[in-house]
Amino acid sequence: MPYILALDEGTTSARAALYDREARRIAIESAPIPCRYPQSGWVEQDAEDIWVSQVESARRVLETASVSPSALVALGITNQRETTIVWDRTTGRPVAPAIVWQCRRTAAECDEIQHSGRAATISAKTGLVIDAYFSATKLQWILRAVPDAYAKARDGEILFGTVDTWLIWRLTNGAVHATDTSNASRTMLMNLESGDWDRELLDYFGVPHAMLPRIVPSSGVVGVAAAEHFGAEVPIGGIAGDQQAALFGQACFRPGLCKNTYGTGCFALMHTGARRPVSGNQLVATRAAGSGDSPVYAIEGSIFIAGAAVQWLRDKLGLIRTASESETVAASVPDTDGVYLVPAFVGLGAPHWDASARGIVCGITQATSAQHIVRAALESIAYQTRELVEAMEADSGESLSELRVDGGAAANNFLMQFQADILGRRLVRPVDTETTALGASFLAGLAAGFWKDCGELEQFWQPQRTFEPRMQVERREELYDGWKTAVRRCRLADHSQG
Ligand code: ADP
């Protein structure tokens, strides 16, 4: 039996999954990846750990499923985006720690860019907002911090890659140095329109072209993983950043289709087709993963704290014992009795981008109970998502017909129903919520001819449950107005501290 292998390299673990011809996941294995926090706001990983965990999980999934490596038609890679790795071309050894997407070490440089008058040009070229999140300032940091790095980079002795590029380099024993458009569009070095590295941006950030990977389409055979890794040679047929892979795995192949991933944070992406979107609402424009060579785009919004607010209820307040218990606790009260929780624990992401905002709970009375607070935390995830969806609709001119959901907190039925109510739109939760790995397998399977086209893939995407909006429009808008007031308060609260 032939299979596709998906390598899903996340922030906390590397996973590997096997899919059969009907795109059924027959096995999945994972291996943890340690994170280091050397200073406040700094997040690092060892690129060697990323590689070892990924190979380990892939070998294990073949073993547990008793699948021979020669049965692998192709493999697809999906990965944590923006994380920046620089390594020596000859030894293959990283020259610095991998700077993880969450790392804030270049926040001051980003502030400078913001005030330099260059921000508008950079955003216009890349579709991104200026933030430490993206790779360019992380790479700039490494080039400044490592002795002789600039000269070596200019001479092509050291190479840059996001995690996909690093894995491909290792899998091909250094034969292929490549990334795909979806990952490259997160570096702040790629021109979103042309799909090439942008000369002016490279000059601005001081990045030599010689150290950059080739940019290839998300679906297509880019190289072959050497036999020593899995026991047989395996063509590498798909590459996509995790959120773009999830959009593809949710079968959002057409403009207007949209998915939201409810994990630690939320990532909402809307497919916008062949037209490059320009956000007037503080969202990010990005390359989507496509089946062919022509560019496809998406508009993206991210919320920093979603499921993490549930973790906070559990670990810091002790109001629930498990994340899933939040569902019954929230449903035990008819509403929050006017309480709002704005989980701006690390500032607010899209569409506010307010790094200085901090969380608040407001509307508290003597009648306020733990249940109200728990419910308010879950509701905050839904309100924040509505803000993203409204911004996406305004940017794209597309009206959302349904929202496809995945991620750990999408298992919460109370949250999903409240989300449908507050959006006034249908929510669809698929059978397979491991959409990131599924998307990578789709991309690889298309490249290998395992599957014919997106039409065939659409049949594999099966809804498990839909949530229809049931709330009265007046009630919905009244609640949402209350949320908007709470957000204003959370931003004012911070400003009053100077
Ligand atoms: P990530 O990929 O970001 O690590 P996951 O998709 O694994 O996240 O989801 C984990 C997050 O979802 C955690 O923050 C957890 O608190 C939250 N979560 C998990 N299950 C539930 C649930 N049933 N209800 C609400 N939140 C949940």
Description:
With 498 residues, the chain is an alpha/beta fold. The protein has a domain at 3-243: 2-Layer Sandwich (Nucleotidyltransferase, domain 5). The chain is built from 17 helices and 21 strands. It has helices spanning 47-64, 107-116, 119-126, 135-145, 149-154, 163-171, 181-184, 199-205, 227-230, 242-249, 307-315, 325-331, 370-396, 413-423, 435-447, 454-460, 473-495; strands spanning 3-9, 13-19, 25-32, 44-45, 72-79, 85-88, 98-99, 158-161, 178-180, 214-216, 219-225, 234-241, 258-262, 266-273, 284-287, 297-303, 340-342, 360-362, 402-406, 426-430, 463-467. The strands form 6 sheets. The protein has a 7-stranded mixed beta sheet, with helices on both faces. Strands 3-2-1-5-12-11 form a 6-stranded mixed beta sheet, sandwiched between helices. Strand 1 and strand 2 form a beta hairpin. It is globular, with a radius of gyration of 22 Å. The protein starts with a strand and ends with a helix. 52% of the residues are buried. The mean pLDDT is 94. Adenosine-5'-diphosphate (ADP) is lined by residues 12, 263-264, 307-308, 310-311, 323-324, 326-327, 407-409, 411-412.
